[in-house]
Specification:
Length: 224
C-alpha cells in the first residue's frame, strides 16, 4: 500500500500526483489547457520510461514483472496522450463563436410567402427549416417543413408563413460560443439554427453539417 501511495503521487498525469501538478500549474499560469498539456507531456515521458524499465526488467529474467510494468506504461501513455489531445482541442474550440461557423447567405422566406410556395421552396432547396424575415431582413422567427405541410394538408395553402412561425426561439447571437451552440435544442432537433444580431437582423444560419465539419477540423488541427 505504501508503494502504491508513493507511486500514485508521482507528478505525471493521469496519476493523482499529476493532477496535483496540473492544479499547481493552472494556478501559476492561469491557463487550464496549458497546465493540462504540460502535466500530460510529463505523464507521457514517465510512461515511456516505465515501458523501457519493463523491457529492461523482462530481459533480465523477470518476465512477469517486466510485462506488468510495460502494460502499465502503455496504459498511462494512452491516458496522458488523451489529456494532451483534449487540451489542444479545448484550446482551439475556446475562441470559436457562432459567427465563425454561420452561412451568411442562407435560404430564407418572406413572411408573406404562402404555405404552398414555401413547401415547394423548401423541397427544392432540400431543407426542413427556414428563417422568416421582413423586407429589412429582420428575423421574425422560423418555420419548419412539418408546420408548412400541416397547413397545406389542412386546406390552407395560401396561409402566409408569417402566421406559422414556431413559438420556440431558434436563434443565437453571433458571439455565442461553440459550447452554447452545441447545447441548443433547435440545432439537435432541426439540424440548423438562426444567427441574429442584437438589432434583430438575421446574420446567418448554422447547420449541424457545418458544426460537424468544424469539430472534425479542430480534431485534425485543420483550419475551420
Amino acid at each position: 500500500n505504501a508503494v502504491l501511495f508513493v507511486f500514485n503521487l508521482i507528478p505525471a498525469f493521469p496519476l493523482d500526483g499529476g493532477r496535483i501538478a496540473r492544479a499547481v500549474a493552472w494556478k501559476w499560469s492561469g491557463d487550464r489547457n496549458r497546465a493540462t498539456k504540460v502535466s500530460g507531456r510529463v505523464g507521457q515521458v514517465f510512461a515511456y520510461g516505465l515501458i523501457g524499465f519493463g523491457i529492461f526488467v523482462g530481459l533480465n529474467g523477470y518476465a512477469v514483472d517486466g510485462v506488468w510494468f510495460a502494460v502499465l506504461g502503455v496504459f498511462l501513455s494512452q491516458a496522458a496522450r488523451g489529456a494532451v489531445v483534449s487540451s489542444q482541442v479545448s484550446e482551439r474550440i475556446e475562441g470559436v463563436t457562432v459567427a465563425d461557423l454561420m452561412d451568411t447567405d442562407p435560404f430564407t422566406l418572406s413572411k408573406d410567402t404562402t404555405a404552398l410556395e414555401a413547401q415547394e421552396s423548401l423541397s427544392r432547396h432540400g431543407v426542413v427549416f427556414a428563417p422568416i424575415v421582413d423586407e429589412a431582413r429582420r428575423y421574425l422567427g422560423y418555420v419548419s417543413a412539418e408546420r408548412i405541410e400541416g397547413a397545406v394538408a389542412a386546406g390552407q395553402p395560401v396561409l402566409p408563413v408569417g402566421e406559422l412561425t414556431d413559438e420556440e426561439d431558434a436563434s443565437l447571437p453571433p458571439d455565442a460560443p461553440l459550447g452554447t451552440l452545441l447545447g441548443a435544442p433547435a440545432l439537435a432537433g432541426m439540424g440548423a439554427i438562426a444567427v441574429v444580431e442584437p438589432g434583430g437582423r438575421l446574420a446567418g444560419v448554422v447547420t449541424m453539417a457545418r458544426v460537424r465539419q468544424a469539430i472534425a477540423a479542430v480534431a485534425s488541427q485543420r483550419p475551420l
